[in-house]
Design brief:
Blueprint: E1 2-7, E2 10-14, E3 19-23, E4 32-42, E5 45-47, H1 50-53, E6 57-67, E7 71-77, E8 82-88, E9 91-101
Antiparallel strand pairs: 1-2, 1-4, 3-9, 4-5, 4-6, 6-9, 7-8
Organism: Leekyejoonella antrihumi
GO molecular function: rRNA binding; structural constituent of ribosome
Subunit structure: Part of the 50S ribosomal subunit. Contacts protein L20.
């Protein structure tokens, strides 16, 4: 059994025991969060109806907070002496899927 869930603006394919990195959530390590299911596949049965998915619950445990890779932004304008360097690291959260209850 697996599910497609919405996690942090993206869609992720998850099954029980999977570890994934999503956009930052406010929960701290050890807490449990619910992910919104968009599709549920159980053998040959595929559920995509919104009314049936309202009863499906996908639970995940927050493992730790993390940061994405360093991104370097460089702005430059020719002949004016304008140079600007800036960096960014996206805050992320690592979660482990603990249950998919249909």
């Amino acid at each position: 059994m697996y599910a497609i869930v919405r996690a942090g603006g993206r869609q992720e394919k998850v099954s029980v025991g999977d570890t994934l990195i999503i956009d930052k959530v406010t929960a701290s390590a050890g807490q449990s969060i619910d992910l919104k299911p968009l599709l549920l596949v159980d053998g040959d049965a595929v559920t995509s109806d919104a009314s049936k998915l309202a009863t499906v619950k996908v639970t995940a445990e927050v493992l730790k907070s993390a940061k994405g890779p360093k991104i370097t932004i460089v702005k430059y304008k020719n002949k004016t002496g304008y140079r600007k360097r800036q960096g960014h690291r996206q805050p992320l959260t690592q979660v482990k899927v603990t249950a998919i209850e249909a």
